[in-house]
Fold this protein.
Amino acid sequence: MKIAGAKVLLTGANGGIGRAFADELLRRGAGKVYLGVRNASGQTFPDDPRLEVVQLDVADAASISAAAAKASDVNILINNAGFAAFTGGIAAPSIDAARREMDVNYFGPLQLTRALKESPVFSSAGAIINIISFLGLATLPAAGTYSASKSAALALTRTLRAELKAKGTRVVAVLPVQVDTPMGAGLPEPRVKPAEVAAEALDALETGLEEVFPGHLSKEAAAGFKADPAAVQARLSQFVRPI
Ligand SMILES: NC(=O)c1ccc[n+]([C@@H]2O[C@H](COP(=O)([O-])OP(=O)(O)OC[C@H]3O[C@@H](n4cnc5c(N)ncnc54)[C@H](OP(=O)(O)O)[C@@H]3O)[C@@H](O)[C@H]2O)c1
């Protein structure tokens, strides 16, 4: 599938990976990019007539409906918005953050995808890219409820891939380790570059790959997980918040 000429709805467009996607989509000749942002005030984007900012809070049903109606001509949906509280299950003061992680990282992409049912996303010209995380495969207890939300998002991605196969929609999961963005600022270096995430995710659409581990750091992690998932989990399980 080609990015040139595509019409795209991108969530979390003002974040680190979101901005990299916007740049890369323009570079590859996308015809239109709706930039979904929770709070449009004070956001600046490249001056390009193909870009249109759309208010989109993926944790708000009314905002999702309005954005989907505005972007009803898209054939590519990129579910990129995400929230991480970086806490454990018991160590967190309440389950509020865990609920928010599920709202933003799981229910948001599910509701937005459903809202685009009448759009070209649900056709042989359509595609969905879901930005998951390596933590959807293995759990980091210090960010345990986030990991759970990303596992749910990965299961959802595989479900959508199966359900939409008959329509011809391509569904891609992107599973980076730590990325150099505001969300990843407290995570260990070196980190994957946001531009690598965007480029490899879009390459996957063009080449037919279904699950993408962007950058050599993510590929190393994926190879380690494939060889010995229990060893990877044991290593991550050392990082626990005190209760
Ligand atoms: N950075 C990492 O280490 C890393 C690793 C693996 C996966 N990821 C995933 O990559 C994706 C992008 O994150 P990032 O690294 O680019 O982080 P980021 O720079 O912090 O960006 C996060 C984006 O999500 C948006 N967002 C949060 N809650 C939202 C909501 N309710 N509705 C709409 N947008 C919302 C933020 O908008 P506001 O500015 O309005 O809050 C922001 O645009 C996320 O799904 C994240 O989980 C990140």
Summary: The CA atoms of residues 4 and 29 lie 4 Å apart. Residues 11-12, 14-18, 38-39, 56-59, 80-84, 104, 131, 133, 176, 178-179, 181-184, 187 surround NAP (CB under 6 Å).
